[in-house]
């Protein structure tokens, strides 16, 4: 049985859904920027700590994207939030796969287990069962 709730962030919304084996977070209704990404990753880290989730499926459906030059402070927030202890499948629903893959490489260098996908089914399989 899953439970879900939607929370408002500064310039976006997140629908959290607790599913068997993982937490699903759908980030939507906004335009991405460094400030938006920093805020939603803080909220994701807080939710993982609050629920004890060790597997997180993130679906991002935001307009625009964060510049690659701004990825380092974003990863700092993820590390500070304890995301290195969470396996993360990140689904880019709009168009910035290349930027997300670059972020994935930098995250892995900092000890965060994350992989970028363009579809939820493949992301869920990797999240739950590995490569």
Give structural notes:
- The protein has four helices and six strands.
- By secondary structure, the protein is of the alpha/beta class.
- Helix 1 runs parallel beside helix 2.
- The two termini are 26 Å apart.
State the secondary-structure class. alpha/beta
Radius of gyration: 13 Å
Task: Give the total of beta strands.
Answer: 6
- Sum up the overall morphology in one term: globular
* Helix coverage percent: 25-40%
**% residues in beta strands:** 25-35%
In short:
The protein has 131 residues and is an alpha/beta fold. Helices cover 39% and strands 34% of the residues. It is globular, with a radius of gyration of 13 Å.
Itemize the secondary structure elements and their pairings.
Elements: E1 3-9, E2 12-19, E3 22-31, H1 34-51, E4 55-63, H2 71-80, E5 87-92, H3 97-109, E6 114-117, H4 120-129
Parallel strand pairs: 3-4, 4-5, 5-6
Antiparallel strand pairs: 1-2, 2-3
Please give a handful of descriptors for the protein shown.
131 residues; alpha/beta; 6-stranded mixed sheet; 4 helices; 34% strand
